Amino acid sequence: MICKSVPWRDIVLLTNDSTGNELTPSAKYDFKFKDYAPWVFRHLRAKFHLDPADYLISLTSKYILSELGSPGKSGSFFYFSRDYKYIIKTIHHAEHKLLRKILRDYYAHVEQNPNTLISQFYGLHRVKIPYGRKIHFVVMNNIFPPHRDIHQTFDLKGSTIGRDFKEEELEKNPRATMKDLNWLRRDMHLEFGPDKKRLFIEQIKRDVALLQRLKIMDYSLLVGIHDMNKGNEENLRDKTLRVFQPGGERNEETQQDLLMRTPSRMENLKKARELRQIIKKEKPVPMEKSTSKMPDEMLEERKNFIFFSDDGGFRATHEDGQPGDEIYYLGIIDCLTHVGAIICEIHTHEANTTPVRHRQESRARVERHVAQQIADLAHPTRSLRRPLHQIHHRHHQVARRSRARKRKHRAHHRFLGSSNPHQPRLRPFLHRQSHGSSRETSAQIRSRRRVRERRAGPHH
After folding, report:
1. 3-state helix/strand/coil string of 401-457
2. Of residues 99 and 262, more confidently modeled
3. CATH says 2-248+263-384 is which class?
């Protein structure tokens, strides 16, 4: 185990075999595990009221839930812990660096705003496989509850450019995450009474102010809606989740004898080989075919936060304060994209048609958009992603200038009679010729002859 001593930059590196046993750094390993700022994240988990033992059990269980479908536009994969409390999300190296950079500000914000809607980060890790790439991932809260079906899901940015999920595709996948234009077409709005509206808008303003100060863009407000009239009768979670357990379903009582003594080195090696083969062959199975079941009641730690206090969410209320028929599950997600980053897969038409705006205007648009959606839906605000388009346009402008310089460079050397840019004997001659020298000296003629002979190569 290797440790660094700076609290905010702590790194713990473990070398393991496939059974999880720790090895010496020089030994042959199945994976290397790196834990970033473990003490900071430990304090964050305490502030989010997570029990350390439950946290470890949830993440180290044999069951891993993965959602059906392909990774999103960012290329990240999402996995769920067995009890559906936590999300394990793979992130890019740039996102990992940004999270480490903003960790101190994020920690201070959580201290001052315990009811923040920004994603709750519980751990930042890296796994390295022999002869493979390094995989960074973050452990965060799952906004959606394990005991309630989510009937509609929306990812809202306050933009209408490229923010549409096609209705014909929605017919094939009715549980897909919809976007801003789908929200507007359905005339949706958040139904909050005066008190809940005030709490929600004030927290949104504080969270967006932090993201603006950290120069973070492209975040979204995730809205999951549970219809209390429908309840859980459709049993959506069992239809959309799969279970992965290497070795299949096992009776834990049969493993009790293995806990009576410490296994020998040979037994560990044998177990590691068997586990490697099982992992290669094992495939996820639908949750409805597994003995693993979802919890039937609300998580205890959610009761301590305002926006998760109503059965794990924030229940709709009418103007008179009477409860409505829907429960909203809300959170600000995708908070690890810096404004200075170049988004490679940005749409070309967005870059060409969207004008430039300032970050402060983006913040104002977010706040206006949220306020409009709560009580009275108004016209959609403009794009939140314009600073990113400005960067994208600047990137292409620099690239065009670079290509123009290269073309000029190649044309110059074609004029010299060769594509080789390293010909120091010809350059003084051409420089003198360009200044009006009309006759060549004998030395210049000999120099040109030597250059031609060098290009032609040795005679056979």
Report:
1. HHHHHHHHHHHHHHHHCCCCCCCCCHHHHHHHHHCCCCCCCHHHHHHHHHHHHHHHC
2. 99
3. alpha beta
